[in-house]
Each structure stands twice: as structure tokens, then as C-alpha cells.
Amino acid sequence: MSGSNAFKRFTPRKTLASIAVASVLMMSAPAAIAADTSIVKGHIVNSDGAQLANATITLKHKTKGLVYTVETNAKGDYFLRNVPVGDYDISITKDGFTKTQESGVRVSIGQPVILDGQLMAVGLDNVERIAVTGSMIRRVDMGSSTSGVTFSQDELNTMPVDAGFENIALLAPGTAVPGGSNFNSASSFGGSSSAENAYYLNGLNITAIRTGLGSMRMPWEAISQTQIKTGAIDPEFGGAIGGVINAVSKSGDNEFHFGAEGRWDPSSLRATQDSIYQADGTIYEYGNTQQDSEEYKYIKLWASGAIIEDKLFYYGLYEPNQEDHSWSGQKNYSERERESNRWFAKLDWYITEDHSIGFMAMNNKRTWTTTTYDYDWETNQRSGDGLAAPGEDGGGLFSLNYNGYITDDFSVSAVIGRVNEDVENRVASTNPKVVDERNGRVVLGPYTDDKIVEEHYQRDQARIDFNWDLEDHAISFGVDYSSVSVDFSEDQNGIGEAQGWWTIATAGAGDRSGVAEGEDYIERRRRSTFANNDSEVTSLAYYINDSWQATDNLVINAGVRVNNFKNTVSDGRTYVEFENQIAPRLQAIYDIYGDGSSKVFATYGRYFQPVSVNMNIKQGGSQREVYDYYELDQLDSDGHPIITADGSPSRGVNTRDTYVNQQGITDPGLIASSSLKSMYSDEFTLGYQQEVFETMSAGARVIWRDLGRGVEDTDVGPILSKKLAELGIEDNVGQGSYYVLLNPGDAVNLSYDFDGDGQVDNITLSPEEMALDSMQRHYLALELTLDGQVTDDLRINSSYTLSHNWGNTEGLVKTDNNQADPGWTTSYDYGDLMDHGYGDLPNDHTHVFKFNGSYDITEEFILGFVTSISSGRPQNEFSVHPEGVDSCAPGNPWDACISRYYGHASHYDEDGNPSPRGTAGTLPWVAKIDLSLMYRTELFDGDFSIKGTVYNVLNSDTATNINEERTAYGEDGLMLNPNYGMTTERQEERYFSLVARYQF
User: Fold this and answer.
1) Backbone phi, psi, residue 421, to 5°
2) CA-angle at 237, arms to 231 and 241, nearest 5°
3) Which of 76, 93, 10, 2 has its CA nearest to residue 41?
4) Which of 219, 579, 700, 891 is 20 to 30 A from 254 via CA?
5) Contacts 24+ apart (CB under 8 A), 722-729
6) Coil, helix or strand for 284?
7) Which pLDDT value is given to residue 855?
8) Are 921 and 955 in contact (CB under 8 A)?
């Protein structure tokens, strides 16, 4: 759908097939990561079709006054890089020939404009004008096979697309909604996990620093264009094996502009879904909708213009917004008022035609107050005065960028900047969270927060990119660097002996609590985590790419990216270091008929994923975790423990001594294998794209993605204890678990003084001793696309994806237990947890249909539509691993069967039979239809519009996640879980949004 503008109509002219060949193929370099520029290129001929040398092509920005000129070479070709995005008037002249020109040519991010022209000698009558903005030029790019879509903000404003990069990403083929509610709405690209994408704004990396789940929250009015890259990504981009979202901001021009926009999402027009109840009739803690209310409103004010005409431009945006949200659980009713006063500023200085400097700054800090009341779900009544707890998160960014031509053929772009993110919560009550899990999930006693967190992250980054344009080659190369500093602390709520996460449960066989199977107990879990001082994650990468015009019909893009990653613990010692990770990127594009109307292409790429910043906290931070177990004491009439004055449950004597799971050791030789290698994925694509109906394109693409190697944490304790005993080394470390960062399937190398004799013990655990399968994830898909201008009034972007996503790991995060803990999920914690774990993965959606676009009903009214229909994700059955079978069989390295302490987390049914991943059926198909209607008119010499949007028009509430724990513990031991299959997540309810906008 890229390239069209719903506010400006044009009728595409038929392209000149006789002159298209060379222009579509020559100098076919993909547009680089330059902050907010793109490429204009083409081929000029005379009336006989002969090449015209020394013809002058002039681009004039319609509102900035910027002028760019370039001359054709001896072959009639020209190439102009670093052209700022926007609308241009373009003319082609040469002495002795009639001038030709075209108005309103749009230059978009990452999408070269191919402008072909034919000049007639003065005096000829049959003058044929420029063929630009036509179907071939916009629809099929012969210079690149990177897949994806680009949308301008004007296009998005005419459609029912809510704010956020993720909502835009879901318009592209091959993307899927995340599997977990904790994943920050980040999309899955091509079967990858939601934490494996990268996000850029004006060349600055704005990916969420700790988790990689989504991006910083942006003031969306400031975004001009957004490009979604779903595959065959150029070597300029790295640090992600999923997809890339690349955006540019708005900027000022010679005309003064002022605008205002207001939005209101009234709670009264938001539907209410039915509450969800557990099998015993108790309301589900996260499924109580009786008190749900949500209202959102904002005001946007912006201004832009020229400080110095044609030279220095400004753009500024102020966006205050407020969210009012209320909800209830089982024992608590909460009201939250959250405010944010976002602002964005951009300055652009065009020093000369060849050199420009830009500055960008933004703040997205938000604050809130959550007031929590006592609540009785059965009477749906709240009580008490409420406890108010403040909190804040967000941060800001700033950057400086440069674009320039050193010579006519050699250009440079550079970006330097900083991104900050902070999170802090303050509790209003010191009550800890207490949950009775013996029969479903029942919260005992009111609480406001179950943990206290303070987080500060800072990413400093710099990159420089060079482009050298030769006759048959366009060579790009560059360097990018980033350094992330981490300051983190987390502890459980509660004072003194009340501090911790409290759970009432029923023991299984051989339970860690020390009580007999079928007996009840109380567990207190405390985990304190700190990472600060010199905890850093650094990345340094080099790349080079050559776009080679091999023949008149064939373009070869050959490049490589060399990555270097390093992670340090809090005292600055390195625990992860990957050097010279070579990632080749290859593309071959062939013009089938030589007229630029269709192409076939093949690509290969290797993509590396750095170890997440999250691992500097979970693995490289000091994390001490201990468990205490107690008998039950005083009970209420329902059999639940009475909550005491300090908020903790009434409890009897300890059932065993304190179990120390982790001591908080951060020695690199103990927390990561010294032979650790980086995570990477390979991608192959084969595709075809064809211009149809002059204004549209149709395409087909086959994609194969394969995870070549993964990185996870594993508790090697059961294996290590056997190895130490074999070597005669006594384990005096004093902890029960040894979580080590490793490559499953490879050997593990550790160095630590285990017996405390002052000498470091070097221990190697072979692949046979570890008995772990390698991490596997496969994705095979067929994408069919059709997009463009159906008529002057109807624009569509549509796709169908047939795919299969299977293996034994989702990736950095885990939908099974909604674990947004990149690199530190429960996968591979023990070998027995992985038994029968190979199968269809959570991001497997066999069929996905998408149909999006807008229709001009009249000059004033525009109907927008976004629809998607997808098959449901696979279901699982999780139970307790049976003793004595598979990895728990006697003599197996994992025969200690520690996974049993994880509870219902292994792939077995209630009878102890294997239930391989993804074989318990699939969830229902998910259909979503969003519609909008916009009215626009001129008012007081300005543009006024009002737009109403209904999201989820059908108010569908299809389950997107269910309780997959097939079993539960009862008095007689393991039994069928009565809550298996209960909906835990579903589609968001229908809601209405009203947006009014005025600008002049």
C-alpha cells in the first residue's frame, strides 16, 4: 500500500516499456538506514529509444525549497542518494530537447523511486512525457528483494489502525499477534519469538532495552513513514533474527504549519465481556470483568516551519494524554489514573545542497497512581478508603545525524544518540501476595504490589554509513556501535518475616517441601536481584554490501555483516563475548521480460541475535533465591489460611530447612560456559512479483527459516553433582541450583572453586553427559500478496500466508507460561522438561488472511478497514513428569527428575502418557474486523477531519490462550485438572474511538 496518498489523487500513466529496462536495473542499491532519506534513480532516452547522456534531472522539494540536481552518464543512467523523504516536483532537461516534468512525486523511506524519462527533440509533435508515479515504477523494485510494506502517516490516518508500531506491523504478511499478554504486544515475524525484532527511528535504535519486546512508546503524530521489513534484510541492519521496523519522523518546511488533534475513547462505548469462572465457581483472578472500565483521551499540538527559509527547519509536538482504568480481581478492586506529557522536537539544517544535519529529541515519561480497595467478588462490592501507590516509567532520547555527499559518487550518513528507559514503583501497602493454588487459583487478602522494582537503562549508540556509486556497482559499507548500561534492583513486598511470594499447595510425590504426597503446605519464596555499576552490553558491527548490475536483467546484492557482542557482570568482568560473527546476505533479482514489470528473486541471509540485556539481570546480576516451607495453621471457614496482621498467611512449623536455590554468585566461570557461541538463524526465500492492472502488484514468496543455534540457561546441578563426585571434588558452594548460560547440544565448560580449597576447578560436561537436544525452530511459509490502487478511490493491501512453525523452542520468550524473560525461560532448565517438547510451536498459525485498505466514498468521506482471520495456535497438555521414564529413567543423566518441582510443566497427560508439543488440538480461529469512517473538509483556510473507529466490530471474544495444565494435585495425588482448557486470554473487547483533527 506504500506510495499512495489518500489526500492527493493521481491517475498513473502507462509506463514506457521500451525505456524501462535499464533504469529499473541500473545502480540497484537498496536504500540504506540513513535517518530520513531515500534514493531516486532512472534512465533517460530520446525519441528513438537511444540513451541520452548529460541530461539534467532536477528535484525540488514542494515545501522545503530544497533542490537536487544530477546528470545522466554515458548510458543515460542517473542515481541520486540521500534525498530527504517528501513530495517533489521533478524536471528533465537537455539542450535541444523539450523539457519534461512531473509534480508531486513522493519519496518514501527505504523505497527507491525509479523515474524513467523520454525526451523529444525540439520541433517534434508526438511528445511523450515522463513515466513516473506509474504502476511499474511504484509496484516492482528490480534493485532489491527485501520483503515488507511501507506506510505513510497519511495512509494510516484513513484506516482503523491504532497507535503503535505493532499495530502497523500486523498489517504485513508473515506477522502474528504475540502469544503472551506479558509480551508488550510485540509481534512475531516469520515464526520468531516476539523478543527478536529491532526498531529504528531516524537511524536510532529505539528497541525496548531490557527485553527487546517492542519499542519505546512514541508520540505517533511525529512519525511520518513506517517501513516493516519481514525478510531478506540488508546487512545495514543487525541484532535481530525476526523483523525490523524502520521509521522516520516528520520535519518542518518553508510553510508555517500548526495543528491540533483530540481523541476520546469513552468507557461507555466499550463493550464488557463475560467474566471467567473456575471449575469450582470461583471467579478467575484475571477474568473478572464486573468492574472493568477504561477511558483514554489525549490532545496533540504541533507546529513546524522555517527558521531560515530553504535552510533551517523545525518541528515540535506536545502530546498530553490520560488513561483512566479500573478493574477487579478476587480480593482487590483497583483504579489507576495514568498521565503522560510526551513531547518531540526535530531540527534540520540543510547547510548546502550536499550536506545536512538533523537533531531529534523526545520524552515519553509517564506517571500514575493506582488506588487499591478491599473487594468481594461474590457481592461485587468494594470497601475501605483505598491505598494509593504511585509509579512511573518511560524515558527519552536524543540524536544528531548527518547526511552528505563528499563527491558526486560518494556519500556519507552518520547518527549518534542516546536512549534512556526507567521504571519505578512504590507500594502503598506492605502486604505480600498470597495465593491458594490447591483448587484453581484464589488470592487471599488484599495487596497492592507483589514486588518492588527500580530499573534504569541507557543505550549510547553511533553509526556511520558510506555509499560509493559506480557504473555497475553501488557499494555500501559502515560501522555501528552501541553500549547499554544496566542499573536494576528487585525484591518481594512484605516486611520482615512476611516478605516473599506465598503459595498454598498440595504436595506431589517426593515433593521438595518435605511433606507426604497429597498433604497441604505453605511455600514462601524470596528472590532478591541486583545488577548495577559496570553491568553493560556492547555491540560492534561492520558491514559491506555490493549491489552489482551483472547483466541487463540480473542484479546481485552481495553483502556481509560482522558482529561482535559482549556482556559483563556488575563488577565489569565479561561473561559473554562473541567475536567476528559472520552474517552473509545475498540477493539475486532477475527481470523476466526486461521491461521492469515482473521479477523472480532468491535470497539467503544469516542473522545473529545478541544475548539479551535481560540476562545481565537474571544471569549476570546478583540473584539470591531461597524457599521456606511450613505446615498449615489457622484456617477460615473455606479452608484457606487466615491472613495475619502483617499480610502473611497463618502457618505452623517448618517442614524442612531453608532451601537455597541460588546464592547470588556472579563469577563468569560459573554462570556461562566458556565455550558459549552466539544464537543465529538462517533464512532462504524464493519469490515472484508481477505488476497487474498497471496500478497494483501481485506476489508469491516461499520462506524457509531455520534456527541454527540457540542460547539458553540450564540448571546443570544434577549433571554437575555426578561429575564432581566422579572427580572427587566436594561441592561446598552451598546452593541447590547452578543455572549456566549454554548452547543446548554442545559441551559445557565451567571454572570455579567448588570445594573452596583456593584452586579453580575446570570442569567439562560433554554433550553426552549433558544429554540435551539442540535448540530447534523451523518456519516454512508461502506468502501471496496483492496490493495497490484498485480504482482511483479504492486502495488495498492484502495477503494470505500458509505456514508451519515447529521445533522444540519458541525462542527468547515462552508463551506456554507467558514468560517475558528473554533468554531465561524455563525451556531447557532441565533435560527432563524437554521430553516430548518437539512439535508445533505457539506462533504456528497455519492460515492467515489479511485485507486492509481504504475507500473514498465521496470527496469528503473515507471508509477504512483492517481485517484479519487466522487459525488458532496449537494446544498442549502439561503435567508432572512421571518418574522412571524418558529422561527420568534410572541411569539417564537427568534421572534426578528435578522438573517435578516445576509442577505441571512437562509434556504428559493425566495418565502419565507422552503428549508431544502441539498435539492437543488447536485453539479456535480468530477473526477481527476494524472499521473507520472519516469526514474531511476545508475550514477557515485549514483542513478539518473527524474520524470514528470501531475496533473489533463483531465484539469477538475468541480465546487466544487457555490453561494448559492438564493435571492438578489432590488428596489422592495427581488428578485431572478441572480447570484445564479454561480461557486465560482472549480478544480485546469492542471499543470506539473518536478523533478530531485540524491543521493549517
Assistant:
1) -135, 135
2) 50
3) 76
4) 219
5) 722/769, 722/893, 723/763, 723/765, 723/769, 724/754, 724/761, 724/763, 727/761, 727/763, 729/754, 729/755, 729/761
6) coil
7) 97
8) no
